[in-house]
Amino acid sequence: MGLMSHGSDDVRCPPTWPVSRAPPIKQVAAIQCCAAGLFYLLPGGTIYVTDDFVPEVREYEDSNGRSPFGQWFWRLDPRTAARVTRIIDRLEEGLRPNVQPVGQGVLEVKMHFGPGYRVYFGLDGAHLVILLAGGDKSTQPSDIKKAYRMWAEYKARKARGTYHATNPQLP
Fold this sequence. Notes:
Elements: E1 2-6, E2 9-13, E3 30-34, E4 37-41, E5 47-50, E6 56-59, H1 68-73, H2 78-92, E7 99-103, E8 106-110, E9 118-124, E10 128-135, H3 140-160
Parallel strand pairs: 6-10
Antiparallel strand pairs: 1-2, 3-4, 4-5, 7-8, 8-9, 9-10
C-alpha cells in the first residue's frame, strides 16, 4: 500500500485494490469516482483509492472520420445538449443511468424528457465507452439499426487495427 501526501492529509492508496476487496458499504462514508479511480472515504478519515473501473468515453468515427453521434449532438438545442452532456458525464463516472441493451452489443440510454431522447453506445471491454448515435423515440427503430451497423464496423475495423476514435467534443 502506497502512501501519498496531499497537503497535510495522508492518503493510503493500494496500487490495485479489486472491487471484491472494497470495504462493506455500511463502513463507507462516501464514494467518489474521478479520473484516478474510485475513492472510498471510510469513517475516521481513511481514503482508499481504486483504479478498477474508470471508463473512457470516445465517439465512434466512420471511415470518413465523421462522428454520427457528434453530428446529432450539435443539432440539439442548448438545454437538451446540456442534459445529454450530463448523461455522458455519468457514463464517464462508470454510472449507467437508464441503460438497456438493445441487442448485438449495443446499449441505449433512455432520457425521459422531450420526445424521449436516446443515446446509443457500445462497451469495448470494461474501460471504453464508444458513443455511436443519438435520436429520439420517433426514430428509435432506424437509430438502433444504424447503431448495430456502426458497432459491427467498429469491431471489424478494430480487429484489422484500422480504427481510431475521438474524445467527445462537448461544450
